[in-house]
Design goal:
With about 200 residues, this protein is an alpha/beta fold. The protein has nine helices and nine strands. The chain has two domains: about 90 residues, TusA-like domain (Translation Initiation Factor IF3, 2-Layer Sandwich); about 100 residues. It starts with a helix and ends with a strand.
Amino acid sequence: MRTRDAAARKVDVVSASESAPEQLDVTGTLCPVPVLRAARRVRRLPAGALLEVVGDDPLMRLDLAVWCAREGHEMVAMVEEGSRIRCLLRVGAAGFLLLLAAAAPPILARQESGRVFFTATWGREVLVWGAWRTSWMAGYFYNDARVRPVEGFPEILASLDAGPALVLCGPGERRQLEANPALATIRLIEGPRGNVLMRVERRRT
């Protein structure tokens, strides 16, 4: 771990002619939200742009460093100021990443196992019941954070009063939904570990 002085000195590698870094404050959020929000912001930035991420989750230091190494971005500096952590990132070659996304979807699917569930939700709320955490947390990035964990079957039923719902559930919860004679279910997307995105509604009598 770099000391604060060492990290501060590294900031000097940023040229004075460069534009001021874009700011992203993730204070108060915990792993993996800081990385998901940083990834979402980076998608809108050109290669070479700077992004400063500020937060207070100790795990953010390691998470962002690993994510930068995996995605081809540069961790320019990391400074601790009391309980706050400042990470300065330089965006990598966006064009290469887009090419990779188009040419190697199976590889990306393994890297981001929850992405597949949110390719067709179009920003609609997704209820989460018993699904693998890594899968549904991807909704914070790919579905504008419109994911809502529920505690059990009664909450699913209550949500259906307003109409059909999208439910991301584990294999046991899927069986409960499909076995209920009062519900009509459609499996939309099946993903890792038996998790399924379903359309659920009350049967018309």
